[in-house]
Amino acid sequence: MTQKPEFYMQYALHLAEKAAxxxxxxxxxxxxxxxxxxxxxxxxxxxxxxxxxxxxxxxLAIDSAxxxxxxxxxxxxxxxxxLEPCIMCAGALLQARVDEVYFGAYDLKNGAVSxxxxxxxxxxxxxxxAQGGILQEECSRILSEFFxxxxxxxxxxxx
Length: 159
Description:
Layout: H1 5-21, E1 28-33, E2 38-44, H2 47-50, H3 57-69, E3 77-83, H4 87-96, E4 100-105, E5 129-131, H5 136-157
Parallel strand pairs: 3-4, 4-5
Antiparallel strand pairs: 1-2, 1-3
């Protein structure tokens, strides 16, 4: 039996903290096999470390889950991610056939699930159920603190 969404979001937050400790935008994601509750994939942002635009938490979690499951189809799976997926990640989730997406913080600038666009509601697409606002305060706080610290560091370096 699976846990409540908050349980998995806590683990995604742990991954986001790991990303922040490495100087990455703190986003973490896990993929869970719904029938068993087992985490089969995980990822956190690594764009700066890998110097690669595709190293979003969601894409790394999808890659991890596909490798572990031996299939590109992630049926019977849900993703828990600390920030609303962007259009690239929403497209990847559609292609991977993930059933459900739970996210924490809304992304008003880049969110492609409900904020900016609704990628999962496009016609003739695989249907993904999504729910935002899971541990929203905690997910928003880690992002706000990260960017506040970046601004402070930038101001210290300014002439």
